[in-house]
Write a structure and sequence with these properties.
CATH class: Alpha Beta
Low-confidence stretches: none
Structural class: alpha/beta
Number of domains: 1
Radius of gyration: 19 Å
Mean pLDDT: 97
CATH architecture: 5-stranded Propeller
CATH topology: L-arginine/glycine Amidinotransferase, Chain A
Shape: globular
Distance between the termini: 29 Å
CATH superfamily: L-arginine/glycine Amidinotransferase, Chain A
Number of strands: 20
Strand order of the largest sheet: 3-2-1-20
Helix content: 25-40%
Strand content: 15-25%
């Protein structure tokens, strides 16, 4: 039984823009995620790794020596810095490292330490093959010699994915009701209440102030992840995607979230600045609406990588983020193929913070 929570021991989840030791990335291998596109996706990964490895380690989860050898060839041809790439050999179900990877917390005193808050991964309460992915964070904790805290609500481990939460590193956490409070569709933790979630966020992630948005965007396979919707770019500034076309299915949910943030307060009682971020024109795969969103950017040490979609709004989104984030370049990565897997850059990456 856990005697003290991570928060009681001084741990909290740092913001994504704070210095990283490394980024975790699962090499693509699940053909059902990108039917007929897996070879093209590997080259997109090459560009992702090239940008991230300019400023930190990239630790790649991969399941075989043969696949590692191929990944090295791809990364070499993409001119990624292989000196900053490490391969972590372990079986996995998919490559969405944001959701099954190590959700890290950190403390500064009496000595700097990074640990893992271990949540249960259940493939978004949707797919049957999740058990390999659920074992990855404990293996990382063991091999990296990181302390691990199983996140519990009473006697049950809490199911949660990294894409379902967003923090400013000062005590405020952002999430959605659609993702965690819906008791009928993709229910992660049956019967778990808002108050119980708030307590878990406080105890295991150091978030003493929780902001609940409503619904996420249509087409999101996760049923409401916040990282396709609304993100912190600094301690007190949020970007929130907004749809201008009233006929679009996302218009009303996005307006509702805008109204909710009008009354929001940060951990110190101040109002956050909320900046609208555009959306690209709808993308489809057959009948499926795809979750194309500029909010799915990732803040690495050396760059902010932003998904782009061959859309006129690409330039506008990059400009907005470039004005808000001045301490590292903001660059676009073509994500039309990536989004066929119902996720893009943030969904694929998970940061491991530097110790101090």
């Amino acid at each position: 039984m856990l005697k003290k929570t991570p928060a009681a021991l001084g741990f909290a989840m740092p913001a994504e823009w704070e210095p990283h030791e490394a980024t975790w990335l699962g090499w693509p291998h699940c053909r059902t995620d990108w039917p007929g596109k897996l070879a093209a996706i590997e080259w997109v990964y090459g560009e992702i790794v090239r940008k991230i490895a300019e400023g930190e380690k990239v630790r790649i989860i991969i399941d075989s020596a043969a696949r590692e050898a191929k990944a090295r060839r791809v990364l070499g041809r993409a001119h990624a810095n292989l000196g900053n790439v490490e391969f972590f050999r372990t079986p996995s179900d998919r490559g969405w490292s944001r959701d099954f990877g190590p959700i890290c917390v950190r403390k500064a005193a009496p000595r700097p330490e990074v640990a893992i808050a271990k949540f249960k991964f259940t493939a978004w309460a949707k797919y049957a093959n999740w058990r390999k992915d659920d074992r990855i964070a404990p293996r990382i904790a063991e091999r990296q010699r990181l302390r691990m805290f199983p996140a519990m609500n009473g006697e049950k481990m809490v199911a949660l994915e990294g894409g379902g939460i967003e923090v400013n590193g000062r005590g405020t956490l952002l999430t959605t009701e659609e993702c965690f409070l819906d008791q009928k569709i993709q229910c992660r933790n049956p019967g778990m209440t808002r108050q119980e979630y708030n307590r878990v966020f406080t105890d295991y992630l150091g978030a003493r102030n929780v902001l609940w948005l409503g619904d996420g965007i249509v087409g999101d396979d996760t049923h409401g992840h916040v990282d396709d919707l609304c993100r912190f770019v600094n301690r007190d500034t949020l970007v929130l995607i907004q749809e201008k076309r009233e006929s679009d299915v996302n218009y009303l949910p996005l307006r509702d979230n805008w109204e909710r943030l009008r009354d929001a307060r940060l951990e110190d009682g101040t109002r956050p600045d909320v900046i609208p971020l555009p959306v690209p024109a709808p993308l489809y795969c057959g009948e499926w609406r795809l979750p194309a969103s500029y909010a799915n950017f990732y803040m690495a040490n050396a760059a902010v990588i932003v998904p782009t979609f061959n859309d006129p709004a690409d330039r506008l989104a990059l400009g907005i983020l470039g004005e808000l984030i001045r301490d590292r370049p903001v660059v676009g990565i073509h994500a039309v193929d990536l989004v066929l897997g119902f996720g893009t850059l943030h969904c694929l990456t998970q940061q491991q913070p530097a110790r101090g």
